[in-house]
Amino acid sequence: MENIYLLMLVALVVLAIADLVVGVSNDAVNFLNSAIGSKAISFKTIMIVASLGIFFGAVFSSGMMEVARKGIFMPGQFYFDEIMIIFMAVMITDILLLDFFNTLGMPTSTTVSIVFELLGAAVVMALIKVSASDSQTLADIASYINTDKATEIISGIFLSVVIAFTIGALVQWLSRLVFSFEYEKKIKNFGAIFGGVCLTAIGYFIFFKGLKGTPYYDNFKDVLASQWLTVVGVSFVFWTLFSWLFMKIFKRSILIIVIAIGTFGLALAFSGNDLVNFIGVPMAAYHSYEAWAASGQAASSFSMEVLREKVPAEPILLFISGGIMVLTLWFSKKARSVAETEIGLSRQGHGTEKFNPNILSRAVVAGSTKLADGLKNIMPSGTKRAISKSFEKPDEILIGDKAEEQPAFDMIRASINLTVAGVLISIATSYKLPLSTTYVTFMVAMGTSLADKAWGRESAVYRVAGVLNVIGGWFFTAFSAFTAAGILTYIIFLGKGPAIAILLLVAIGLLVRNYISHKNKTREKADKSGLKKSESKTVQGIILESADNISNVVSRSNKIFSDVFTGLSKQDKKKLKKSKKGVDKLEAEIEDLRDHIFFFIKSLDETSVRGSSFYITILGYLTDIAQSLEYISKKSYKHVNNNHKPLRYNQITDLKEVDDSLSDLLRKIDRIFTERKFEEISGIVATKDELLNNISEKIEKQISRTRTEESSPKNTTLYFNLLVETKDLMNAIMNLMEEYNSSYRKV
User: Are 635 and 724 contacting, i.e. CB atoms less than 8 angstroms apart?
Assistant: First the structure.
């Protein structure tokens, strides 16, 4: 029987390594986003700075492991066999939950997940013990849970959300009021003071939070606690002088140093504080096993009161953990997906919006707009003009035609993000208040975005919807962590060894599936074969660039159209579903080009404005093509998915003829645009009437068949719909050819 606990311990060690990987992948956004979003320093430098912070924070990690040992439950109320079940359920749940969020690219809190997993597992185990006891009732469950500490942790975590958002918005608004968006001019005069304030706050944060619990902290903690005003004052003078000298000697902005040190400080604090979320449970399990093995008692009778004792983390384990975290930071692609979500929500300029608006986001934006308008009406006109002047954005932010390549926000905002997050975490630490570093850094970033008017009328509903989705995900984290850990605890209690083996296999399978799914999404995103935004500033260049997009759409349309009719004839639901996805992707790419029209027109030379009319017309015809394909694929999939009768043989034969003629046409068009033989377009346009008449004849034949032979209304309706929509598709293609031919000849 002892072997099963040894095997469980080995499994927990393996799970700890996996948890470090998925945990860092999610929490990397906490310290990377400000530096990446502002592009103040190179990506390689950011990674080196963050890696050093992570490694030192892990190696000098404090005794934060007590949360896993006694912070949520009363260890003395459980026996060794029960505590091992709790720990196993918690670790399996934690890995799957965090990996799920990583795959979605959503930031969540590793602190909240581990707290609620421990709580859920402990509650279920307590229920099992109470139900098996003749003397205990449900009221006795409270004796198993450290309710005071758990309530303090949970309330502190969620309270930090409101505080971080509010403070971040206020500080950013005041900073922008002082520096405006053209901060380069004012930073020369006030940069030393601003740098002194930021670096003092970040430095204080590093000592108070990042290095708390290190072997050296005891030497100066009394000074920091009793003489903090003196420490802050001396630090401010030192950093202000340093900032002034840096700008004078190197002729560079001090904000670069602020962002670099801030990134280091948050990375240091993250690994020192959140390491418990990844290895705290396995380490507690190891100490439990060690004490039980030495006791000689039965696993079902050995009390885990030993977990009440404070045990420092083993240096070698901290060293290994730090190494794994650094490697994950460098090689995890999921970490970058999560980072993109927060940067996208806080982006100052225009960009692709990841989230769709919902009823709540629309209501929030509408209410906020009315409130803002009301405040403006009661504000003196002089004050309004002064504030508006500070918040005027330079043209390159408003009309940049390469918004995705620009920094998501400037260095002022990045500095405020890092400074405010550091200060809030420092204050909470000094008062021993628990919080989630993820929640604090994310909400500070959202608050500064709001204050910076990054959420304008063009993007507010999308950004607010994104924030609400992320916050909703946090509540989902708490609920699902509690529920899933509790369920797994009960399953392991019933099934013991076999249940653990099955759950581990299921976990591995889910992790592999999520990895493949994320890899495929990343590959699709990196695929450069989609439609391209026009970057040319001349009419001739626009026409030639459009040829590539036309060739791309025609080629894909040919495949989609043929696959739909093949799937329909063979009742192949899988092929029809794949065609639907292909159409959705094509429509999304065309819509993205249409969203780019504003920037496209802004970038044109005065002599090339007529090229915009051609570009807009071409996009209109491409949209018509996509909409026809969408209708055809949707109707075909619906017919097969509803298990209606398959089309009759003569109907399939007619559709095959249509497919063959259309495929031949699309292949010729694709060749013309690929090889740039535009003089042959006239020959294509000349076949328009013949192709359309062919479809009209088939419609007439079906009318005759319907009156004498057909007995299926669904088949007849589908067949007519397909032919009529194919006719519209051909019209759109021919109109596209005529427009291109006409414009090409004018150049």
Answer: no
For residues 148 and 71, the answer to whether their CB atoms sit within 8 Å is no
What is residue 69's DSSP assignment? I
**Short-list 635, 328, 277, 290, CA closest to 481:** 277
pLDDT at 167: 93
Measured from the Cβ of residue 52, the count of other Cβ atoms closer than 10 Å reads: 15
If 0-12 CB within 10 Å is exposed, 13-18 middle and 19+ buried, where does residue 2 land? exposed
Token couple for 120: 């859920």
Here the tokens at position 581 are 């996805």
Q: Can you give 674-696 as a three-state secondary structure string? A: HCCCHHHHHHHHCCHHHHHHHHH
Q: Which of 723, 224, 661 is nearest to 429 (CA)?
A: 224
Structural tokens at position 528: 């450069």
Contact between 465 and 361 under an 8 Å Cβ cutoff? The reply is yes
3-state secondary structure 81-106: HHHHHHHHHHHHHHHHHHHHHHHHCC
> Distance between CA 556 and CA 25 in Å, rounded?
36
Q: Which residues of 255-281 are buried (b: 16+ CB within 10 A; e: fewer)?
A: bbbbbbbbbbbbbbbbbbbbbbbbbbb
Cβ atoms of 307 and 75 within 8 Å: the answer is yes
CA dihedral 203, 443, 174, 362 (to 10 degrees): 170
Tokens 């992570």 locate to 54
At 302, is the secondary structure helix, strand, or coil?
coil
Tell me the pLDDT tens digit for each residue of 87-105.
999 999 988 888 888 777 7
Dig out the tokens for 369 from the structure. Answer: 């707009």
CB-CB contact of 511 with 18 (8 Å): yes
**Which residue from 342, 591, 363, 596 is spatially nearest to 460, judged by alpha carbons?**
363
Is 200:232 a contact under the CB 8 Å cutoff?
A: yes
Helices (H), 206-314: 217-226, 228-250, 255-275, 281-295
Could you read off the pLDDT of 243-277 as tens digits, one per residue?
999 998 888 889 999 999 989 988 887 776 677 77
Q: Output the CA–CA distances (angstroms, integers) from residue 734 to 2, 688, 731, 738, in the order listed.
A: 77, 7, 5, 6
Give the residue from 535, 737, 538 showing the smallest Cα distance to 621: 737
Q: Quickly count: other Cβ atoms within 10 Å of residue 377's Cβ.
A: 8
Distance between CA atoms of residues 459 and 353, nearest Å: 8
Of 543, 597, 556, which Cα lies nearest the Cα of 399? 597
Strand pairing partners for 587?
Answer: none
Cβ neighbours of residue 312 under 8 Å, at least 6 residues apart? Answer: 63
What is the spatial distance between Cα 458 and Cα 260, in angstroms, rounded to a whole number?
A: 32
The token duo for 415 is 């500095």
Report the distance separating Cα 104 and Cα 443, nearest Å.
19
Structure tokens at 549: 């997009």
Q: How far apart are CA 118 and CA 154, in angstroms?
A: 12
* Calpha distance 193→211 (Å, rounded): 26
**Three-class secondary structure of residue 39 per DSSP:** coil
What is the pTM assigned to this prediction? 0.76
Residue-wise DSSP of 619-673: HHHHHHHHHHHHHHHHHHHHHHHTTPPPPPHHHHHHHHHHHHHHHHHHHHHHHHH
626: phi then psi, degrees, rounded to nearest 5: -65, -40
Nearest to 425, CA basis, from 646, 647, 297, 273 = 273
- Alpha-carbon distance of 113 to 27, in angstroms, equals 12
Question: What is the C-alpha separation between 20 and 110, in angstroms, rounded?
Answer: 10
Q: What is the pLDDT of residues 331-362, one digit of tens each?
A: 877 676 677 777 878 887 666 677 788 888 88
Query: Does residue 537 carry a pLDDT above 70?
Result: no
Q: Answer for the pair 561, 632: CB distance below 8 angstroms, yes or no.
A: yes
**Residue 323 CA, distance from chain mean position:** 25
Question: What is the total residue count of the chain?
Answer: 747
Neighbours of 369 (CB within 10 A): 12
